[in-house]
Amino acid sequence: xxxxxxxxxxxxxxxxxxxxxxxxxxxxxxxxxxxxxxxxxxxxxxxxxxxxxxxxxxxxxxxxxxxxxxxxxxxxxxxxxxxxxxxxxxxxxxxxxxxxxxxxxxxxxxxxxxxxxxxxxxxxxxxxxxxxxxxxxxxxxxxxxxxxxxxxxxxxxxxxxxxxxxxxxxxxxxxxxxxxxxxxxxxxxxxxxxxxxxxxxxxxxxxxxxxxxxxxxxxxxxxxxxxxxxxxxxxxxxxxxxxxxxxxxxxxxxxxxxxxxxxxxxxxxxxxxxxxxxxxxxxxxxxxxxxxxxxxxxxxxxxxxxxxxxxxxxxxxxxxxxxxxxxxxxxxxxxxxxxxxxxxxxxx
Length: 348
Description:
Strand order of the largest sheet: 2-1-3-8-7-4-5-6
CATH class: Alpha Beta
Number of domains: 1
CATH architecture: 3-Layer(aba) Sandwich
Low-confidence stretches: none
């Protein structure tokens, strides 16, 4: 007797447009039937420039239904089942509340009157505690799914959201590395006073004893303090700046050779952390902190191909900072990146 998943596979038309009530990529599977689970974390408490990243998961859900499911390199991917959970209502409410507290702090910073501001000091404590609770929620959600044998991806929200994911690896006792694609190093310590700022995600990740190395790609905006963290990391952070990458290309190196250099820097078990602003601006015009330069979409896809052929194993991934803006462009790009990230699971 066929199980329910096989019945759905046999009756599903992967060439048809995604139905209104379908899940991610228009697929018909529920969480139990899906091998790949996406955890949405609609959180943007500490963002201080562009906003809207908390709306990213919902925006990307809609955009995903326009993605064609066939690719010659992973034609059967959709049959594995890819399912995105509903956003947690309590987390959404905490995001709204803590964002209001953070806005007060950021306003005080901008006015230059943080010292002695009792309201802002109290709000800072509340924000840091809220972010800590979010990290715990993510760690618990990811850890539970991994214990069920699921391959897990996280969809932000801002770039503070995956720290709990990394903490779940730590709790499992897994030694791992991070392939970090971004315009920014995110190595600031407690940026604007926020212990768990989106600009501090990799600084906080470095505190985890099981993290072996961070390899950053596409970097083009960072401060002196962040550069110092890199220099003092004793090789634990390797940086491939966008400018340096392109200089090598202009001098005659191939992108394939550079990709192999990048992947060679990683340990056997890898998490990919993808901030969409790692791409060139025309691929992510609505993201919160866009920076000139960066990687093209096709360069990223080739980097993924080199990674998949390397023999290294992808533990999981996060995709963050996909903000809706005034059109669907970020969502269209983000949805396709999400599908390609799912394809990197060794089980696919």
